[in-house]
Amino acid sequence: MPSNETQKFDSLVLGGGIAGLAAALDLADAGYQVAVLERDATIGGQMIRLSKVFPTLDCASCITTPKMAAAAHHPNITLFTMCRLEGAQRVDGKLEARVTQLPRYVDPDKCIGCRQCEYECPVMVDDHEQGGFTARKAIYIPFSNAIPQLALIDREHCMMCGKCSSVCPTGAVDQLQQEQEFVIQAETMVLSTGFELMTDFPQRAYGAPGLGDNVISSLQMERLLAPHGPYMRVLRPGDGKEPESIAFVQCAGSRDLQLGKPYCSRVCCMYAIKQAMLLSGALPLADLTIYYMDIRAFGKNYEQFFQNAKAMGVEFVKAKPVIAGNNPDGSVVLRYEDQEGGTGAVSREHDLVVMSLAMLPAFSPEEIVPVSAADDGFVMVPQPKLAPTLTEAAGIFTCGVAAGPKDIVDSIAEAGAAALGAAKYMAAKRGGQAAA
Amino acid sequence: MSKLNSGQEAPKIGVYVCHCGGNISDHVEIDKVVEQAGGLANVAVARENSFMCSDPGQEMIIEDIEAGKVNRIVVASCAPALHEATFRGAITRAGMNPYLYEHANIREQVSWVHHGPGATDKAAALVAAAVGKAGELEPLEPIRVEAEAHATVIGGGVAGMSAARDLAAQGLNVALVEKSPFLGGQVSQLDKTFPSGEAAGELLSALAAQVLHDDRITVYTCSELAEYSGYVGSFKLKLQRTPPSGQDQERLSRIGDASPGQFLPFVGVWADQPPEASEEVELTSGAVVLATGFEHYTPPQGEYGYGDLAEVITLPELIQIMAGETGGGEQLVVNGKTVNSLALIHCVGSRQIPGIHQPAPGGTLNEHCSRVCCTASLQAACELREKFPETSVFELYRDIRTYGRGQEDYYLNAGRAGVVFARFAPEAPPRIEAGGEDSALTVTVPDQLLAGEELALGVDLVVLAVGMEPRDNQGLVDKMKLPVGADRFLLEVHPKLRPVELPAAGIYLAGTCQAPMDTSEVANAAGAAAAKAGAILSAGQVELDPFVAQIDQAKCVGSGACVEACLSDGAIEMIDTPDGKRAQVNPALCMGCGVCVAVCEQDAIELNGWTLGQYEAMVDAIVAQTAGQGAKA
User: Fold this and answer.
1) Nearest Cβ partner of B170 from A72, A295, A427?
2) N or C terminus of chain A with fewer C-beta within 10 Å?
3) What string of DSSP letters covers B238-294?
4) All domains of chain B, ordered by start, with CATH?
5) CB–CB of A340 and B497 under 8 A?
6) Number of independent structural domains in chain A
7) Of B51, B408, B495, the CB nearest to A255
8) What gap in Å lies between CA A233 and CA B71, rounded to an integer?
9) Structure confidence at residue A283 (pLDDT)
10) Please, which pLDDT band fits residue B547 given cuts at 50, 70 and 90?
11) CA-to-CA distance for A380 and A375, rounded, in angstroms?
12) Is residue B633 pLDDT above 50, yes or no?
């Protein structure tokens, strides 16, 4: 529990997604005391919100939850959720991180995660954990395998009716809770702050506020395919129709100089193929089309996964389509140049369109930690070949998408390397001795 | 008939059935399985959860243990390889012996392979068997062995050197074993690296200097692993050092007056004087890191004209030619011939498709993407256009995979520099013929970017971007019993859960022996492997699972049948006792396979955690369950 006193650790991991958790676990297993700082109400990052993961089609929960639980119960790891890093700098050889913990309006020491408050709350709010397709309450636990299992109040929507307080068996609701500031002192730091998807794609691409209800993001499709998804089956959000034709638009924002994101987001080809495969199981009769620039199936067993999808009948069209409009029946019109057929500009309709949106850095280090962002916005790594996790500041390392788009496999490997970098730094400071 | 556990308490079994978020519950009626389990003998509680491996799922078990409701645990979920350790960990946290646990696999063995009512019946039978066994479980203690603070790294390329450096930095002594007289591996064959443009030689010199100057690291060049035995914490290795011959001798002749630590372009970093006579080196090592790297695909004679036409070369050959070129001329000159125009062909020996591509003589295909060749080709193309503005460059590709940070720039710059791209389908690859109007060769290819229109390109040079292949490691694979994937690369336990580990504890993977990677990715993999090895070895002690053979000396008659049958050298040996020769198990070497149990005529051997009594209980439970199902039907 935060207090005003300075809390001392060996290492501070910024970001509790899969990369941060992997790095924290490696450091903790080596005997170092680790603080994991997470701005969300739960650890697990983007990965815990996914359905299944390529190329093994393991369910994302099956791989993520054990890492989350291992971190939560590790004697050498302390988790800080709903925490924002205000700034960190080295003082007398130690990094001092100023942290603000946002109020949950629920006392974490009293809440037992029973969800009585959630059942009683009369306010319904769009549930972003479910792609915004269903509603949650104004007091809620983010999702069933969130860690910690603690309720929080969405103050923007809470009516202060007091029903949650009246049913809470432990008197945990605390509307007067305030932001708390405290300092974490550590010798090393790992930046594993992950990504978010480009949200202003329509404005950037079309100067328009939205693309219509039946054009969704790839992370929304993850929710439609997830075991505890919003509809428990795949329906298109506009009208609840079971889609008979689904299209994926690749490089939506990535590899696009006009949108200012010239880089490849590296995972979209594979997750689109994966989603198409999962959809062919959920909706065996649906037509599945992936519009792509290049299929980048470069990882271990990825190319084989791509060839399987082709053999299963997923259609791959080399084109960069635009969304030309919506039909009265809700279908979406895509217009593109038919390069392979040579018939010029053509239009095709699909019931549902998934945009494989660009990955953007979720954190900008400037003025918070003494490292800079490269031109692409991700953390600058001055020695990309032999020390890809090293930043410009001694003792600060980076891994996962914080250091550029990356899939889960590569993020986990890089997390191991970042943990090793931090351990080496500390061992050198301690005269060549590893942690006790 | 059930034995009592250490607490002298009758078994109170808790059964926990996982939905796996639909993975199981879509095909197995969980409530029926729970209900049936609840009716079995010794079962105190039977519960379900959508994800047993999640924190709330694990908490459910812990609460029941702490409340004294249960003293044996059965979880029915996915394969034990995934989460057995997760649940044992939860049980330990609750203060109970973690081996009072049995796992029923109702996902891989049920819901993923059976549908309909049969799936539920099979799940119920597997749960009943696990409950039967749980009643017979006894608390066990892990085997603790001393861990040598020493690691051996096999392979002296970037992966091996990085791993050695990173292991030493954690306070471990390291042996770095390299087959050739040089360090640097395949990166020695490069000129500049992408995307930073750093010279390969400078990178290797810097890395080799760290390795060669570290007192904790001993480099053994000209060495191969000759013998291997032992276990995590204490592997016994014998290295064979051999004076260089053949190609190595030719490379050594290029040293001149170089001093150790110096980089020689396209040769490597010269480490030290090679041995003059064969010698053996014996090591005891706590962990082994495999960093044996890759080989370039060698096109068979005739593939794209390779071997038949002198003007067809590979990308590594082009890189070496280019490195010697300072530019200045208007056109590239190769073998005295001016190159007005050249074509780079991608995916040679990569992304091969059964039915389209010709398998190698051994019947193998390289179905994988080699990951680095796209950017390497584009890097070469950009450099060519810069140095020789009058040489035209064509890139014939399937997909451009410049995925990494900074790599897309090469694609953009190549286009801006006037490189012409044509995209071919795997079914219609480019055809190379000798002769042309004004050129040495003619390349014909239907271009998908132009609706399949056939292009005929007159070129003077064709460059094949050859892929990465797994190195022929058969000797090492056999000696160390290493798992190999369908792609013939070494196979990790799980790409996400345990990406650098092998099933045998204490053996780790670093770099391209696992899969194609670029230098940055290799450095990360090596760091990850070093972190794992460092974590277990720095503790000084390693814990092993206690599922090993145990001999009842009173029943043993010293026949030696078990020693003969044993698959793990030294795991059982005969010792002299006052009563004569008797068998004795070395628990650290025993793999727990059970072969000795099967051959012992005296029934003097039991496998801890898998005793004959436990098997009988499982079989009885399955028979009872299926008989019950038969009666209902």
Assistant:
1) A427
2) C
3) EEEE----HHHHHHHTT-TT--TT-EETTTEEE-SPPPSS-EEEEEEESEEEE---E
4) 1-141+611-633 (3.40.50), 150-293+471-542 (3.50.50.60), 298-466 (3.50.50.60), 548-607 (3.30.70.20)
5) no
6) 3
7) B408
8) 39
9) 96
10) very high
11) 8
12) no
Identify the CATH number of the domain in which residue A75 sits: 3.50.50.60
Find the CB nearest A434 among B203, B524, B538: B538
- Same domain for A340 and A201, yes or no, is yes
Same domain, A34 and A147: no
Find out whether the peptide bond into A75 is cis, omega within 30 degrees of 0.
no
Cβ atoms within 10 Å of B353's Cβ, excluding its own: 15
* Contact between chains at B405 and A404 (C-beta distance less than 8 A): yes
The reply to whether residue A298 touches residue B514, judged by beta carbons under 8 angstroms, is no
Q: Provide, as residue numbers in chain B, all residues whose Cβ is less than 8 Å from the Cβ of A432.
A: 171
Any CB–CB contact under 8 A between A161 and chain B? no
Contact check, Cβ <8 Å, A296/B171: no
Q: What is the pLDDT of residue A436?
A: 44
pLDDT band for position A433 (50/70/90)? low
How does pLDDT run across A78-113, given as a tens digit for each residue?
Answer: 999 999 999 999 999 999 999 999 999 999 999 999
Closest CA to B175 of B96, B36, B325, B282: B282
Return the amino acid letter for A135. A
Range of the domain at A111: 103-178
Q: Which of B403, B408, B519 to mutate to test the interface with A (most CBs of A within 10 A)?
A: B403
| Three-state DSSP string of B213-250 | CCCCEEEECCEEEEEEEEECCEEEEEEEECCCCHHHHH
B96 neighbors B18 (Cβ within 8 angstroms): no
Amino acid in position B338: T
Phi, psi of B215 (to 5 degrees): -60, -25
Residues A277 and A311 in one domain: yes
B59 within 8 A of A152, measured Cβ to Cβ: no
Rounded to 5°, the CA angle B202-B205-B211 comes to: 145
- CB-closest option in A31, A228, A409 to B495: A409
On the question of pLDDT at B8 being above 60, the answer is no
β-pairing, B217-220 vs B223-231, is unpaired
**% of chain A at pLDDT higher than 70:** 98
In terms of C-beta density within 10 A (0-12 exposed, 13-18 middle, 19 or more buried), how is residue B597 classed? buried
Peptide bond into A66 cis (omega under 30): no
Q: Where are any strands of DSSP class E within B460-602?
A: 461-466, 468-470, 507-509, 541-544, 549-551, 572-577, 580-585
Picking from A146, A178, A210, the residue at the C-terminal end of a domain is A178
Evaluate whether ipTM surpasses 0.90: yes
Nearest to B460 by CA among B435, B485, B495: B435
| Residue B584: burial class (beta carbons within 10 Å; 0-12, 13-18, 19+) | middle
Same domain, A329 and A379: no
When computed from its CA atoms, the radius of gyration of chain A, rounded to whole angstroms, is: 23
CA-based nearest residue to B465, from B321, B349, B354: B349
What's residue B254's pLDDT? 85
pLDDT above 70 (res A435): no
